[in-house]
Amino acid sequence: MTSFARASAAALAAVACALLAGETATAQSTALRLPAGVIPPPSLSHATSEYFKNHPKAWSNFVAKLPRLNAPARLARRFVATVGGTWTVATNAPAGTNFCSPHLLHNGIVIVQVCLTGNWYRLKPTKTGSYINGTWAPIASMPVIDGTQYGPLAYASGVLPDGRFIAIGGEYNLGSSGTAAENYGAIYDPVADTWTPVTKPAGAGTISDAQSVGLADGTFMLGPCCDYPATAWLLNASDLTWTQTGAPSAAGAYQDEQGYELLPNSKILTVDIWTNYPTADATNAEQYDPATGTWGDAGTVPVSLADPGVCGTYEIGPAVVRGDNRVIAFGGHSNYNPQSNTYGCDPNPDPTAILNTDTGVWTGGPDIPSVCGAGGTDFCDLADAPAAVLRNGNILFAASSGFGDAPTHFFEWALQDNTISEVSDPVTQFADRGAYNFNFVVLPNGQILMTNFGTPEIYATTGTTVSTWRPTISSAPSTITRNHTYRIGGRQLNGRSAGAYYGDDFQSATNFPLVRIVNNATGHVFYGRSTEFSTLSIKPTVFSSFKFKVPSAAETGASTLYVVANGIASAGSAVTVQ
Fold it and tell me: What's the pTM?
């Protein structure tokens, strides 16, 4: 460690300890509360959060710029592109309901949260496989824990190998930040339609807007936002106990606002933010080795992706693992200081970087276009924003100017030449939402379900599916019976990426195989429930297997079976349903 790095680490230690001490003293009594109907801001670093707690006037000024729920739509030009895909509003989504946080389950059903509440819906596709025209129905609500309704926003999440869904932490429970609910958690069982509270790791500090990831063996890994030194934990899903493991350990040893990404080598990547605090000019990355439980060097990033310290947001964009063994890492340069509510702190475009995971070498990528803001000429950035890998290999992402300023625009990053093209805006609410309001999940049909604190929409891409990313079946049954369970083996059954990315605040990975059964006579589509994965690795050469249960509603007769991962289907395998 250099003398400068030691000084930076010492400075961060002093600040972090002060912040965390302040949190301990004020978490129950001091919260950043929002007026009714105000959409919470982007996930705040805890340095910014503590500043606002001590400067209520600055908080009021900042809140004044935030969007409102159910407000009249802001008038803005809707950009319609000649390239890229198309957006369609989810036909049957309940009117007037604001949706967030979509997650795909192991049977092809999507669960979606009603923003800032403990209420959830499920989206089931039609018999023709359409999610646009699918049916929406409420499911069980999240539990009341210690007398408080758990209804988080900006939390760690994932689908466990046994099919249950976990949510833990949250920066804005029911709209308030800095409450005890930042350490609550719950697991949803889709078979029983019940939620069970989950206790946070006993040795962890505040969970809040945490990062998480599923390891290649399926273990859920959690990185609490605010521990100093950083901590990380592994969940035993069978008894809901936690075991501490290694955490990012570069100079600074802090990980607030960072993300975890599963790599093809089964290690976990994080791009550091806090190494040179308070300047936030970190250019190092780390990777976690599950075999040793430790972190090591993951190369030097050619440009600092985190928002510079002069702006004070300490945000970064998503890091997307693409199917060609490349990581596309987006920056979070906002040019906005939320503490002073002023612009101009960093008048430079938002940068990107590309990691070749085969060689471990980083290179610079293109800057994000400058087509945002009210006049369409401001820098666009991804300071908390979603991205997803499309079946044609491109990456769909959202960006807006400043620190989540409206409007939000959408882009595709091309697989072939790493260029960026603006694509069409959604049909609704792009004009009065910042990029941080949007979440993506990859659907089994290759479309992207998007939520935006409003009515969900679905993006249908164009172009040809990347054939080398398809799952390959090597063993599958030729005759199956409803309600019985069978095993399938092959390669690339989990896909070549995790599908959709955000970073901390929200994770909706889909690197698991689904079974699609299509009746040859009717064309009707049915999904079996996948279980017992031998691995969830995204390494293309790894053989894997899993079991699936034939749905009771599957139509009998000659059918075709597909394995689907991240919206990309295998070649069909003939099967008879009886």
Answer: 0.94
